[in-house]
Amino acid sequence: MATTTQKLIVEVIDARNLLPKDGHGTSSPYVVIDYYGQRKRTRAVMRDINPTWNEVLQFNVEKSSDVFSDMLELDVYHDKNHGPTSRNNFLGRIKLSSGQFVKKGEEALIYYPLQKKYWFSWIRGEIGLKIYYVDEVAPPPAVAAPAVEEAKAEEEKAEPPPSDKAAAPVSSDQQPAPAEVKPNETPASAVEGEQAAEMAPSEPPAGSETEKANEAEPAGEENGAAKGEMPAEGADQVEPEADSQSVQPNDHDNDIVLEPTSANWAPPAPPPDIIASTTSGSIPEIKVARTTSAPPPLSRPAIPTNYVSSVDPPDHTPIERSSFDLVEKMHYVFVKVVKAGSLPTNGNPVVKIAISSSHVTSEPARRAKYFEWDLTFAFARDTPETSSFLEVSVWADAGGANFLGGVCFDATEIPLRDPPDSPLAPQWYRLEGGGAHRGDLMLATWIGTQADEAFPDSWKSDTAGSRVNSRAKIYLSPKLWYLRASVLEAQDILPLTALKEGSFQIKAQLGFQVQKTKVSVSRNGNPSWNEDLMFVAAEQFGDHLIFYLENRQPKGPVTLGVVGIQLTAIERRVDDRKVISRWFNLQDPKNDKKGYKGRLHLSLCFDGGYHVMDEEAHVCSDYRPTARQLWKPPVGTLELGIIGCKNLLPMKTVNSKGSTDAYTVAKYGSKWVRTRTVSDCLDPKWNEQYTWKVYDPCTVLTIGVFDSRGAFDINGEKEATRPDFRMGKVRIRISTLETGKVYRNTYPLLMLGNSGVQNMGELEVAVRFVRAVPTLDFLHVYSQPLLPLMHHIKPLGVAQQGMLRGTAVKLLAAHLSRSEPPLGSDVVCYMLDADSHTFSMRKVRANWSRIVNVLSSLIDVVRWIENTRAWKNPTATILVHALLAMLVWFPDLIIPTLAFYVFAIGSWNYRFRSRHKLPHFCPKISLAGTVDRDELDEEFETMPTNRSPDIVRMRYDKLRAIGARVQNILGDFATQGERVQALVTWQDPRATGIFVGLCFVVAFLLYLVPLKMVAMAFGFYYFRHPLFRDRMPSPALNFFRRLPALSDRIM
Prior knowledge:
The chain is α+β, with helices and mostly antiparallel strands and about 1050 residues long. Among the domains are: about 5-135, C2 domain (Immunoglobulin-like, Sandwich), CATH 2.60.40; about 330-460, Sandwich (Immunoglobulin-like); about 480-605, Immunoglobulin-like (Sandwich); about 615-710 and about 725-775, Immunoglobulin-like (Sandwich), CATH 2.60.40.150; about 890-1050, no CATH class. Strands 12, 15, 16, 19, 20 and 21 form a six-stranded mixed β-sheet that branches. Strands 1, 4, 7, 8 and 9 form a five-stranded mixed β-sheet that branches. One of its GO terms (molecular function) is metal ion binding. This is Protein QUIRKY. It is a multi-pass membrane protein.
């Protein structure tokens, strides 16, 4: 097999506005690049401060070490051979991390500003680069053919021939002889394996030499941890060797397994009494009778010292250090069934496992050299049961008609595996009872936690439905790009039309996205538009961007030409540089034959400098641009432990019983996680932990709980698949978390529906944020803009952003619904709040309450001033007079006094901060408890409406009343502004004359009297005692209210 080596390609394109260094206003620059100890340079461009190199430099990608880092350092110098200097002058440098590099096909031209080497260096300009990885195929090494043939001959000699005679059992302390050889191994490794097999010592068994040759076991056996151990119950319980490669499900057909045939096994001892008992609603339970004549359960190999025999005493359970430190440990009994041999059946047997009250039947075995399953089962073990047994039985078919044999284990003797240890090797066990007199089953059993690597892909006793659709999975959103299509003009369209004047329009289509330009009227057949059309595209790019040239006619549009463009051929950019436009020939839509039907002038590019919005801006979980080259290093790590739910409501009825199959979905950035589905439980426990990289602390983590509404049986009938039921969600803002602190809280799951607020249960989670950068760098993030630079250079409109966001949600839902297990479109829309933008009178009142709450502090200040002015507290009023005098005579103290006052308020509120409970949905702020039922029905009504005409008329009348009120408020605001304008517009000559004359007198007095005296006099006049004030409005207010406005001119 050919090997590949990774290369880093650096295309040095050009530089702009470099510093002159040769004394004549120019420079002769060249570039030097260092990467992993490799140094390369470009040629020098003579006397040019805007040089162009267009050179490609290639570097080998090595493993990171302490000597060489993964940073790419680029330095620009002025060549000393072209100038008055005797040394190479420094022109600038940049340093880039390897995390910013992309693979070939995703590269884009990026201009990096040159940086200083020293504090007092004078540097300017920028350099344009393209940096990407490529994989080069290395030629395969020369292989000697005779060595391969010799190795194959040795393998054929080492494989034992099948024999029909029963052989004596092999001694358990016999060491295996030959080793397994994979077909894809190199000849050298195969020869070394044979030499090691020949050097392995072996002890002859009690049988004949012929039987010894037939029963040689391979050296690559998985039970090497128990070398030289003798079974306790005689020779009939000898364990054959375990094929280490048979554990992998995809490698059975390619492995050369050197194992004894089934005919070499001696007949087993008389089987114990088998008692078959049937439990209601479960599979037949096979129990080994515990009598004095029957042998005990099959003995287990010696347990290593780092295992314990039971989980009963918690003091003896080793505490492993794993990544699951935010959740509780959940112990499971793992059973890994690999394969079986020497079964007297020609069908596809199944394995049935029973422990305590849990029963499961495996899928039918695959037929190969052995009967293969390679399945792992995990049975919940909440409380240790000393009297429980693990029973594994093999049946000829799933119906349980023919029992082939079984193995029984005492649950207290199953070892406990710590996650740092290697996986437990499967071993061969003799099947007892049934018709398999020489049958053997390879399996492994141990007790572990949810941190075990076999847990995610195993069948679990608490899951619902099929094994695949109930697993915990991690999903990644596809990378979304904004596709900008600039439609400029078309030419040579007139011969296609018989009209003297035509109305032309361009319709662009990308998948389900359709956009149109404005209609352009042209008399010469060369219409122009100059419009930008924005689309959302998801990698991998498989669609075509299709443009239709339509002629708008009274009977309808007529397509004159069409052009299709592959997305892979469109250029990518990360800034606002101008993209080169191209001409595309139009084709006849009715005829596939190529012919010239005019041409279309387009400018196409993928804008990687934008962040494709799939969430609302105020609850967004990621603000990074699409282009990976613009990503900044992460500032921390977010850890989430999903512990479980409590007191969930039953969501459906199964067999006349309330049931809930709950699972949780968490979304942050482009990473989605889904826990396993816990079957038929109102208090499910997941205890799963996940991590995310945090690039901006001002982001939000969203967690939702759903009830699986897939295909299930209801009263014996199977219903069709329906959308999963929403049970509530939780949002956690990362900036509210303290660094390194674990927040373990229980949140109510609130759902707002047509009937009001309903508490669906409680969700318990644990959250921790760990900072990964220095404190100053972390605080520097707060001074940076949320959205990337392109959102400020070329901002998108509000309506356009809403349209693009809806498109992005549809693409994400379509992508995640094709996963296994799928995330339904209703789940994705609920997590992204894609269906919560309908009109709601409740939200209108809630937003008004928020505005009043924000202005309440200002209202309190105004009230305090009025109370002070009214001398309700004479002491406070006298102190205010003293403060006024101090600030007037020392105006430099105004800003420091205000700053200190804000500091005092913040320090006082620090005592009342939330230390443990994180913010959550508040029904009081949402006005969910006081809302009218009719308003809720209107909020959750579909569009278009399906209500009766009377209800629609009532809602329309109410909306008209609210509109009239808003209309009056807007009119009042306009009136006040027009009165301000009327002060100097001479609409009322007398009022304007009074105001202008008064302004002249004020200006003359302020020239003569110091400003401090005026401010002091005005302050004391304003705070004068009520005995010296009139109850009537002030003359200034009366004057302002008499000014004219334009409200009397509105019809």
